[in-house]
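Lab meeting, item 3. Inverse folding demo.
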């Protein structure tokens, strides 16, 4: 067994044990983060992915164990993939990062993602029958939506290939943002980026002078591959890759080569003029719109290449973007209805509170005037004021629970109607009411042995003790 093979096997074992170490470390610190390792899912240049299960929820996840070590939590937070996913999430076609596991003593890092069923390469691998054209269209539409979202947020992927496109049934999500870059970063970028077969000409021929248009070249290569079930430009090295591109697409306008020469030192750009065989010959049986979109994605000059936003409005996707537009219009209308409803509710509550405040201010002075007036009248008449105070206060309290100004006016008018009238200059004479004979009694007083004092007796006494109602009953009876 060679030394390199031994090293690879030792590294795989160490990496697997590291994930176990991470799980144990997190288990002791937080019981929410517990994972059982199920098996290895895949491996890349900088990481390997292990299928795991959460002890807490029972859900399966994909733990991406990074091969590099990190010295501090600040270095982890500045990791390009973590920053990009935080900025791009949540999105229906971007892989979801659940949590970050960092073991500070060992410097090892693991990223916990949602688990997808398979990648796009696994989906087409070994197939003899081509995919359904509608499924191809759906996959490409979803992929372009994820790339458009990414570019709108100032990030480009730099490694578009079938292995980085994940599937759950027919739902697609873009993953592996370890190579992503900011669109507004300063040139030049890393030269040897992206997988060779999906690498754009500007990446192959310049010293890192490329931009987000390289992602659209990768999309064109992926689209061709899932239709034809074989790669379009399977170059064995960089020069062979360029030659394969020229064999099919032909050489570009000499001005494009002139621009590339100014930005290239590692390769001499001196290719003979060549007419390519064309993509149409390789895609027989496909619609004109499908071939046209692939040709626009694989334009040699990046400045003339279609954008993700324009690609989503291509005739090839007409039925999909029209359905999207209808759904968005419905959602927008529904959202406006909700907003207007809540706004109306807020306005009604505000108007109600203002009306109540206005009602208080309107009735308070009148109430005070009325109270003072009747208080003076009652003092003159000798009647108690407590009875009036209770009536007026209860009426005023009832007016606070009405919403409209009309109701408040009605309550104020009712309040004035319910106040007792006090007739001045009218003396009370019980002799006139009950008659002189009934009012007087031969025994006005009676001695009570228990009380030890004289007690009032007769109609006059009954009126004094029991009131007018009792006397009326006695007289009528």
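The presenter then showed the designed sequence:
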């Amino acid at each position: 067994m060679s030394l390199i093979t031994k090293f690879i096997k030792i590294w795989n074992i160490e990496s697997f044990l590291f994930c176990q170490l991470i799980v144990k470390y997190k288990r002791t610190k937080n019981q929410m983060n517990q994972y059982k390792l199920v098996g290895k899912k895949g491996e890349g240049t900088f990481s390997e992915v292990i299928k795991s299960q959460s002890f807490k929820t029972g859900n399966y996840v994909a733990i991406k164990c990074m091969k590099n070590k990190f010295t501090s939590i600040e270095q982890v937070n500045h990791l390009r993939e973590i920053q990009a996913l935080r900025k791009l999430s949540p999105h229906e076609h971007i892989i979801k990062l659940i949590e970050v596991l960092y073991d500070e003593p060992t410097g090892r890092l693991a990223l916990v993602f949602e688990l997808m069923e398979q990648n796009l390469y696994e989906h087409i691998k070994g197939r003899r029958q081509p995919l359904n054209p509608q499924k191809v269209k759906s996959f490409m539409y979803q992929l372009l939506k994820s790339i458009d979202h990414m570019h709108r947020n100032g990030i480009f992927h730099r490694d578009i290939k079938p292995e980085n496109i994940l599937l759950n049934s027919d739902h697609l999500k873009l993953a592996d943002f370890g190579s992503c870059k900011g669109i507004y970063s300063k040139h030049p970028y890393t030269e040897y980026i992206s997988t060779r077969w999906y690498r754009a000409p500007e990446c192959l021929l310049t010293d890192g002078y490329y931009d987000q248009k390289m992602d659209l070249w990768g999309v064109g290569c992926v689209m061709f591959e899932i239709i034809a079930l074989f790669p379009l430009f399977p170059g064995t090295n960089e020069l062979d890759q360029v030659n394969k591109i020229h064999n099919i697409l032909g050489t570009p306008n000499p001005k494009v080569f002139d621009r590339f020469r100014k930005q290239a030192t590692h390769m001499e750009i001196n290719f003979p003029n060549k007419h390519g065989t064309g993509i149409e010959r390789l895609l027989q049986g496909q619609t004109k719109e499908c071939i046209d979109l692939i040709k626009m994605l694989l334009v040699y000059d990046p400045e003339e290449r279609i954008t993700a936003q324009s690609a989503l409005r291509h005739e090839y996707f007409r039925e999909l973007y029209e359905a999207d537009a209808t759904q968005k219009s419905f959602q927008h209308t529904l959202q406006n209805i909700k907003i207007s409803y809540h706004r109306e509710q807020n306005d009604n509550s505000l108007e109600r509170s203002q009306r109540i405040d206005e009602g208080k201010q309107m009735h308070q002075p009148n109430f005070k005037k009325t109270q003072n007036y009747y208080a003076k009248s009652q003092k003159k008449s000798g009647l108690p004021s407590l009875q009036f105070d209770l009536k007026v206060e209860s009426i005023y309290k009832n007016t606070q629970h009405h919403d409209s100004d009309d109701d408040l006016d009605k309550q104020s008018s009712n309040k004035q109607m319910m106040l007792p009238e006090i007739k001045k200059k009218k003396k009370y004479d019980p002799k006139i009411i009950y008659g002189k004979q009934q009012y007087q009694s031969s025994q006005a007083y009676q001695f009570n042995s228990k009380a030890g004092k004289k007690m009032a007796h007769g109609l006059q006494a009954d009126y004094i003790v029991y009131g007018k109602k009792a006397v009326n009953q006695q007289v009528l009876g």
